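Researcher: Predict the fold of Iron dicitrate ABC transporter ATP-binding protein.
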Amino acid sequence: MTATHSLAAEDLTLAYGERTVIEGLDLLVPPGRITAVVGANACGKSTLLRSMSRLLAPRSGRVLLDGKAVHRLPAKELARTLGLLPQSPIAPEGITVADLVGRGRHPHQRVFSRWSKEDDAAVAAALDATETTPLADRAVDELSGGQRQRVWIAMALAQQTDLLLLDEPTTFLDVAHQIEVLDLLTDLNRTRGTTIVMVLHDLNLAARYADHLVALSGGQIHAAGTPEDVLTEECVRAVFGLDSQVIVDPTSGKPLMLPMGRHHTAPRADVLQGTSGS
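Model: Structure tokens for Iron dicitrate ABC transporter ATP-binding protein follow.
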């Protein structure tokens, strides 16, 4: 499928009270691609996603969906096009997994309309994709952190939007489930053309799964482009204050960042390449 919706920020300034978090930021999200936003703690990653989903009004500038300011769009109209998985979502007390995932269908409900077979199918597909079908009748507050995260992702999938924003979707997940979720989002992008923007802490997972990387630093975009353009030793040092060595991931062919602590030295190139050096 071909992406038909555009999402952009123009001269965007975001603040909490007197504290400015992002200032004068311009960003064009590539339609039909996967964008990963990376950066150090408190650099504005989550704040940017909150504004792009209109949870946070800008101090100045604007976020545009198909050329229209998102903060002026009717809520239901926006929710049929753009979905958000926030960083720490809160479920109503006692709600079951199936009911929570079903709430992803609310933007598609009209006044006095009945629950449809299409709604049932969307919820079932989302539960299946996230391997949460066996949890359908359980209360969300009884689940582990990883199970809850997968249920929230299922709700976002059930919404079936063309644009999906996810703030740290791999939080609380073990490494196997992290890969499963990112594979699932890649499948969604490849098969439905869904434009995905996600905040990730793991630079190597971001480089492996994203088509487009955005590195934030001090409320500004330090670098944006392909993983090969953005994930460099210079960028890692500037954005994270970390010395590293960046090599080619032998599995994915994408950049792979090897952090260097105070007690480590750079590995020899022949060791990285699996040669004896003789």
